[in-house]
Design goal:
The chain is an alpha+beta fold. It has a single domain (3-100), classed as Ubiquitin-like (UB roll) (Roll), CATH 3.10.20. The chain is built from three helices and five strands. The chain has a five-stranded mixed sheet with strand order 2-1-5-3-4. The mean pLDDT is 95.
Length: 106
């Protein structure tokens, strides 16, 4: 199974295996990673699963679509490498993916 590393704002790392086909958000929620609220349950209807994708992985995770861009506008700390983790589907190419969590979800 692909591994995803979630890095909390304070630097605490959580390396977890995420089943292919699941979202990066679901991997965090299912493994108790703090900092991913996922209030809408992964429907791209909030911005509480906001993450920063490490630059080395941005091409493989793709770009946000129009709906995701709209939701990211509600994230207080959005940056060019911001994504909603519910919109990133884990596959073999993402084995080793690193995402960083904002200080708080808004």
């Amino acid at each position: 199974m692909p591994q995803v590393t979630y890095i909390e704002h304070d630097g605490t790392e959580h390396r977890v295996e995420v089943e292919e086909g699941l979202s990066v958000m679901r991997g965090a929620v299912d493994n108790g990673v703090p900092g991913i609220d996922a209030d809408c349950g992964g429907q791209c209807a909030c911005a509480t699963c906001h993450v920063f994708v490490d630059e080395a992985w941005s091409a493989r995770t793709g770009s946000p679509d129009e709906q995701e861009e709209s939701m990211l506008s509600f994230a207080a700390t959005a940056q060019p490498n911001s994504r909603l983790s519910c919109q990133i589907t884990v596959n073999g190419e993402l084995d080793g993916l690193v995402v960083r969590l904002p200080e708080a979800q808004h």
